[in-house]
C-alpha cells in the first residue's frame, strides 16, 4: 500500500489515510502531502473513520483515498450521485477484516487508557497497556457492521493492496434490528426516548456521515421553515434523526459512522439499518456497490415491480 | 476534624440524605456514556470513570427558557396585545463527582457570566446555590493535561468537598463551610493515616502529568501564524466541524437564542451553540467572517489560549480535561494544535 | 439597562413608521413604561436589540439623537428573517427592546474638531445619530461635512433629513449615486472616488464612516491617501449578534466583542485586531 501511494503521490494533491492518534487504540485521519508522510500511514483494526466524508469538500483537487470495503461504498455512492468526479479520485483499496468498536471493546475489557499496542490475531484482539495485556474475541469487540460484512474488499479501486478477503456469511443469529423489531411499538418508543434523552445536538452523527452532503445548509439549523426547534428534548432530537434517515433512504452505505461518531453512544445505526432494510427489500440493491446503477429513488417507473399498488 | 473516610458502599446513603434538601446531580452510565443525572435512591453511581459530559450542564443547561411570550388579537381591530414574561430558574443543587478540571471550567463561567459589567440572571440564579463535591484524580487519563493549563488532579479551588480515592472508599475533606455541613451528613470514620496516603496518590499522579505547554509562547506565536491559512488548513483538515468538543468542554459557553413557538405564543430559548458551526457567525446578508472550517478552528483555539487570557490576566480558558480529544470522532488533539502553534516558525515564510 | 436581567427586553410600542426606500423602513418606538422612557439615556453610536416575539431578535443602531427623546428610532434594512418580519409591523404594534447596548462615538474627543461623515446605504443610520447630535450642539464642533452615497436615487434614505441638511448653512453635504440617473442633480460615482475629488483636509479633522464592508475598506484607503491618520478614522462594525452583552461568543474579533467593545472602533484599534472581518 505504502509503495503504491508513494508512486502515485507526485500526480496527486494529497492522499487520505490513517495514522496513529494519541494512543494505539485511536487512529486519526492522515493527510499525505509529502513522501515522508507516507511512513506514518497505518492500516488495521483501529482505522475506523470513513475518510470519504472529506471528499466533497476537496472537489477540484486530485485526491487519493485509502478505502476499506465500506468506505469504498461511500465513494461509489457519491460517484453514482454525481457528487464527485471520478477523474479526480484515486482509490487505494484493501481487504479489511474488521475494525474495532470502542464502545463494545470497553464493554468487554473495561476502560482502557494509554494503550501501547492493538493487534488482531486470527479471531482475537490483543490490547496492551501499562495495565497489562488484555484480549477478547474479535467478534465481541468489532464494529457491529463487521459481523456480517458482505463487502470486505474495496468495491472499486485503482490500486489494491494485499489479498482479497472472503465476505462474512450472513449472521445466523438474529441481527440487532430483527431483535429490536420483535419488541412492541411502545417498547421501541420508550427505548428511543431514553436513548435520545442524552443527545447533545452536536451533530457529529451528521458531520461524520459521508452521505450527508448538505453540510452548512442543513435544515436542522434553518430558521426559515423550522423542521426542528432548538429545544433539547427526545422528540426534537429524534425528529432530526428521522429526517437524517429519510435523506439517507436508498443512499445509506451502512458504514456506521453516525453511531461511531456519537460522543454519547446513542445506537443510531439501528435507525439507519431499518431504513436500509426497507430500501434493499424494495429495490433489490445495495447503495454504493455499482457506480453506474440508476438511483432507485430518482428513477421513475410506471410500474414498480416490488411495490404493490392499491387498486 | 473535617477529614473522614467514607466507604464506597456508604456513598449512596450520604447522597440519599443530601437529596432530601437539594437536587443531587451524580454520574451514571448510559450505555457507554457517563452522564450527570438527578440522584434517586437505587441509582447506579459511576464512581471511577470521568463523566463524558462536563458539570457545566448543571448550571448552564443545554436549553433554558429565557422568557415566555404571548400575542392576543384585538377584537376591535387595534394592535394585538403582546406580553413577555421573565422565567428565572430556581435551583438548590449539589454536583457530585465533578473533577477538578470540570470545576475549574465553572471558574470560566463565573468570570464571563457574573462580573461587574454583566450579570447573567439565569446563570447566577442556578449557580448561587449549587454546591460541588469533587473527586481528586489518582489516575488521570492519558488525554488529561490539567497541569499544563494551571490546574491539577487534586486542585480544590471552587469545590465544597474534596474526595480522595483510596482503596474501597474516599478520604473526604470539607473545603468550605457549606462543604462541612454536607459532610456532616455522611457516614464515615476519622481518616487518620489514610489522609496522607490518599493525598500522596494524587500527588504522584500530578508528578506524572505531561510537561507543560509554553503558554506565553503560544500567545506570542498565534499572531504570527494567524494569517497563515495553509497552517490552519493543516490543523483543521480532519476536523468534521461538529460541536462535540464544544458541548462536552467544561468552559465553552457560547450560546444561541431562538424563539420557539408560534406568533401567538411560545418561548425564547437559550441553547448551547458552538463556534465550529458555519451558522454561528453567518450573517443575514450572506457574509460570514468565519466561513471556512480553518477560520473556525483558529477561533476556537484562539479563544481558549489567546483571547480569553488577554482579558483574564493570562488565564487559559482550556482546563485540560481532554474531553474534546476523547470524544472527537476524528481524534483531533488540541494539545497537538497548541504544540504546533508553540513551535510555529515563520522565518521561512 | 434598566432591568437587572440583561436578556429580558422591555416592552415598547411603535408610534410611527417611515418608508425610507424599497427595502429600508424606519420605526419610531417608545418604551411602554413611561418612567423607563423618561429615564432612558444613551450616546450616539449605541445599539439596541429589537424583539419580535416568535421570530427573534436583531441588533440595530439607535439612529435618533439623544438630544431628541420623543422616541427611539431604528432604521431597518430588510435582509433576513427577523428584518423581513419587522418590516410587516405597523404603528401601534408592540415589540421588545433591549437598549442601550455597546459603546458610542467618542463625542468628547470630537469636540472642537472638523467632522467628515462618509456614509453608504444603511450605513447612514449610525452617522445620522451623531450628525443630529452635533447639529443640536453645533457650537461644540468645527466644520461639518457629509458625503452620503447610495446605489441609485431610490436607495437614498432619510429624505426628510436630507432636505433639512441641504438647507442648513452650518454644514456641507455631498450626495452621490453609483450610476447616472434621470433627474439626479448631485454627484455620480463610487463614494471613495467622490471623496478623493472632495479633497477634505485632514488637519484637525476626524472622519466617521459607515457602510457595507467593501465600501468601508475603500473609503479608509481613500482617507489614508488623503493623509488622514488611522487615529482620525472612526467606523462602526456589524456582526451577527445574539446576546448583545458579551456572553454568547459569536461577534468576537480576537478578544474583542463587537457588542460590548464596539460597534464603534477607530481604524487604529481595528488595525491591531486579528484580520477577520
Automatic annotation (TrEMBL), chain A:
Record-linked InterPro entries: 4Fe4S_Fe-S-bd, 4Fe4S_Fe_S_CS, Helical_ferredxn
Entry keywords, A to Z: Iron, Iron-sulfur, Metal-binding
Residue intervals passing through the bilayer: none
Listed PROSITE patterns: 4FE4S_FER_1, 4FE4S_FER_2
Gene3D superfamilies, alphabetized: Alpha-helical ferredoxin
Residues in 4Fe-4S ferredoxin-type domain copies: 190-210, 243-273
Protein name: 4Fe-4S dicluster domain-containing protein
From TrEMBL, chain B:
Keyword field: Iron, Iron-sulfur, Metal-binding
SUPFAM superfamilies: alpha-helical ferredoxin
Keyword Iron: yes
InterPro entries: 4Fe4S_Fe-S-bd, 4Fe4S_Fe_S_CS
Boundaries of every 4Fe-4S ferredoxin-type domain copy: 229-260, 307-340
Record keyword Transport present: no
PROSITE patterns on file: 4FE4S_FER_1 (PS00198), 4FE4S_FER_2 (PS51379)
Name of the protein in question: 4Fe-4S dicluster domain-containing protein
Origin organism lineage: Bacteria, Pseudomonadati, Thermodesulfobacteriota, Desulfovibrionia, Desulfovibrionales
From TrEMBL, chain C:
Pfam families: DHODB_Fe-S_bind, NAD_binding_1
Parts of the chain that traverse the membrane: none
Cofactor annotation: [2Fe-2S] cluster
Sorted UniProt keywords: 2Fe-2S, Electron transport, FAD, Flavoprotein, Iron, Iron-sulfur, Metal-binding, Transport
InterPro entries hit by this protein: Cyt_c3_hydrogenase_gsu, Dihydroorotate_DH_ele_sf, Dihydroorotate_DH_Fe-S-bd, FAD-bd_FR_type, FNR_nucleotide-bd, OxRdtase_FAD/NAD-bd, PyrK_electron_transfer, Riboflavin_synthase-like_b-brl
Domain FAD-binding FR-type: 7-107
CDD domains linked to this entry: sulfite_reductase_like (cd06221)
Protein name: FAD/NAD(P)-binding protein
Amino acid at each position: 500500500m505504502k509503495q503504491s501511494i508513494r508512486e502515485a503521490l507526485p500526480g496527486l494533491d494529497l492522499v487520505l489515510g490513517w495514522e496513529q492518534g494519541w494512543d494505539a487504540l485511536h487512529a486519526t485521519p492522515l493527510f499525505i502531502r509529502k513522501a515522508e508522510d507516507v511512513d506514518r500511514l497505518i492500516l488495521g483494526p483501529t482505522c475506523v473513520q470513513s475518510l470519504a466524508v472529506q471528499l466533497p469538500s476537496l472537489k477540484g483537487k486530485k485526491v487519493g483515498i485509502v478505502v476499506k470495503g465500506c468506505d469504498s461504498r461511500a465513494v461509489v455512492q457519491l460517484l453514482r450521485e454525481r457528487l464527485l468526479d471520478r477523474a479526480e479520485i484515486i482509490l487505494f483499496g484493501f481487504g479489511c477484516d474488521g475494525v474495532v468498536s470502542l464502545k463494545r471493546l470497553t464493554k468487554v475489557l473495561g476502560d482502557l487508557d494509554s494503550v501501547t499496542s492493538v493487534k488482531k490475531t486470527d479471531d482475537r484482539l490483543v490490547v496492551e497497556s501499562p495495565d497489562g495485556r488484555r484480549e477478547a474475541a474479535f467478534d465481541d469487540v468489532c464494529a457491529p457492521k463487521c459481523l456480517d460484512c458482505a463487502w470486505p474488499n474495496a468495491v472499486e479501486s485503482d490500486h489494491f493492496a494485499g489479498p482479497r478477503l472472503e465476505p462474512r456469511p450472513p449472521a445466523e443469529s438474529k441481527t440487532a434490528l430483527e431483535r429490536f423489531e420483535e419488541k412492541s411499538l411502545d417498547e421501541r418508543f420508550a427505548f428511543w426516548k431514553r436513548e435520545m434523552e442524552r443527545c447533545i445536538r452536536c451533530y457529529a452523527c451528521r458531520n461524520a456521515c459521508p452521505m450527508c452532503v448538505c453540510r452548512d445548509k442543513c435544515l436542522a439549523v434553518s430558521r426559515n421553515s423550522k423542521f426542528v426547534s432548538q429545544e433539547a428534548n427526545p422528540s426534537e432530537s429524534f425528529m432530526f434523526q428521522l429526517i437524517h434517515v429519510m435523506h439517507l433512504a436508498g443512499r445509506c452505505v451502512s458504514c456506521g459512522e453516525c453511531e461511531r461518531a456519537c460522543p454519547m453512544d446513542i445506537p443510531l445505526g439501528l435507525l439507519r439499518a431499518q431504513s436500509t432494510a426497507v430500501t434493499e427489500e424494495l429495490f433489490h440493491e445495495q447503495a454504493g456497490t455499482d457506480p453506474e446503477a440508476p438511483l432507485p429513488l430518482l428513477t421513475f417507473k410506471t410500474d414498480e415491480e416490488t411495490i404493490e399498488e392499491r387498486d | 476534624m473535617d477529614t473522614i473516610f467514607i466507604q464506597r458502599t456508604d456513598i449512596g446513603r450520604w447522597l440519599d440524605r443530601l437529596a432530601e434538601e437539594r437536587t443531587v446531580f451524580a454520574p451514571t452510565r448510559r450505555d457507554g456514556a457517563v452522564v450527570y443525572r438527578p440522584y434517586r435512591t437505587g441509582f447506579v453511581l459511576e464512581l471511577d470513570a470521568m463523566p463524558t459530559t462536563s458539570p457545566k450542564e448543571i448550571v448552564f443547561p443545554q436549553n433554558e427558557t429565557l422568557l415566555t411570550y404571548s400575542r392576543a388579537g384585538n377584537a376591535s381591530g387595534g394592535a394585538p396585545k403582546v406580553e413577555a414574561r421573565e422565567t428565572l430558574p430556581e435551583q438548590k443543587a449539589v454536583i457530585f463527582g465533578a473533577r477538578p478540571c470540570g470545576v475549574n471550567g465553572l471558574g470560566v463561567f463565573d468570570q464571563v457570566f457574573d462580573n461587574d459589567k454583566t450579570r447573567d440572571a439565569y446563570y447566577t440564579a442556578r449557580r448561587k446555590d449549587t454546591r460541588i463535591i469533587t473527586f481528586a484524580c489518582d489516575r488521570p487519563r492519558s488525554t488529561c493535561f490539567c497541569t499544563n493549563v494551571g490546574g491539577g488532579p487534586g486542585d480544590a479551588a471552587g469545590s465544597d468537598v474534596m474526595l480522595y480515592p483510596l482503596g474501597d472508599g474516599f478520604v473526604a475533606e470539607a473545603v468550605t463551610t457549606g462543604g462541612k455541613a454536607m459532610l456532616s451528613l455522611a457516614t464515615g470514620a476519622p481518616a487518620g493515616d489514610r489522609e496522607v496516603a490518599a493525598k500522596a496518590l494524587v500527588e504522584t499522579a500530578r508528578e506524572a502529568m505531561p510537561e507543560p505547554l509554553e503558554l506565553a509562547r503560544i500567545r506570542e506565536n498565534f499572531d504570527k501564524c494567524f494569517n497563515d491559512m495553509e497552517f490552519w488548513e493543516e490543523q483543521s483538515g480532519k476536523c468534521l466541524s461538529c460541536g462535540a468538543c464544544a458541548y462536552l468542554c467544561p468552559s465553552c459557553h457560547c450560546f444561541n437564542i431562538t424563539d420557539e413557538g408560534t406568533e401567538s405564543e411560545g418561548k425564547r430559548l437559550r441553547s448551547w451553540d458552538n463556534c465550529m458551526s458555519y451558522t454561528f457567525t453567518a450573517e443575514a446578508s450572506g457574509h460570514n467572517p468565519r466561513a471556512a472550517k480553518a477560520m473556525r478552528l483558529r477561533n476556537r483555539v484562539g479563544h481558549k489560549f489567546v483571547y480569553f487570557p488577554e482579558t483574564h490576566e493570562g488565564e487559559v480558558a482550556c482546563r485540560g480535561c481532554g474531553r474534546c480529544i476523547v470524544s472527537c470522532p476524528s481524534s483531533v488533539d488540541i494539545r497537538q494544535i497548541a504544540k504546533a502553534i508553540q513551535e510555529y516558525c515563520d522565518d521561512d515564510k | 439597562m434598566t432591568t437587572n436581567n440583561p436578556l429580558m427586553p422591555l416592552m415598547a410600542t411603535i408610534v410611527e413608521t417611515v418608508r425610507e426606500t424599497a427595502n429600508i423602513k424606519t420605526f419610531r418606538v417608545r418604551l411602554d413604561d413611561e418612567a423607563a422612557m423618561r429615564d432612558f439615556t444613551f450616546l450616539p453610536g449605541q445599539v439596541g436589540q429589537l424583539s419580535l416575539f416568535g421570530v427573534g431578535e436583531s441588533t440595530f443602531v439607535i439612529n435618533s439623537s439623544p438630544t431628541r427623546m420623543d422616541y427611539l428610532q431604528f432604521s431597518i434594512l430588510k435582509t433576513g428573517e427577523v428584518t423581513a418580519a419587522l418590516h410587516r409591523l405597523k404603528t401601534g404594534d408592540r415589540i421588545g427592546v433591549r437598549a442601550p447596548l455597546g459603546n458610542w462615538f467618542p463625542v468628547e474627543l470630537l469636540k472642537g474638531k472638523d467632522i467628515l461623515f462618509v456614509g453608504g446605504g444603511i450605513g447612514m443610520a449610525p452617522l445620522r445619530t451623531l450628525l443630529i447630535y452635533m447639529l443640536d450642539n453645533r457650537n461644540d464642533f468645527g466644520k461639518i461635512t457629509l458625503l452620503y452615497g447610495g446605489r441609485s436615487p431610490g436607495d437614498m434614505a432619510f429624505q426628510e433629513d436630507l432636505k433639512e441638511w441641504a438647507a442648513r448653512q452650518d454644514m456641507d453635504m455631498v450626495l452621490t449615486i453609483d450610476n447616472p440617473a434621470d433627474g439626479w442633480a448631485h454627484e455620480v460615482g463610487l463614494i471613495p472616488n467622490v471623496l478623493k475629488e472632495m479633497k477634505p483636509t485632514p488637519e484637525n479633522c476626524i472622519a466617521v464612516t459607515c457602510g457595507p464592508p467593501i465600501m468601508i475598506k475603500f473609503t479608509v484607503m481613500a482617507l489614508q491617501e488623503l493623509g488622514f491618520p488611522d487615529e482620525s478614522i472612526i467606523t462602526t462594525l456589524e456582526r451577527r449578534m445574539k446576546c448583545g452583552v458579551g456572553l454568547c461568543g459569536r461577534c468576537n474579533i480576537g478578544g474583542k466583542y463587537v457588542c460590548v467593545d464596539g460597534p464603534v472602533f477607530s481604524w487604529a484599534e481595528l488595525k491591531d485586531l486579528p484580520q477577520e472581518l
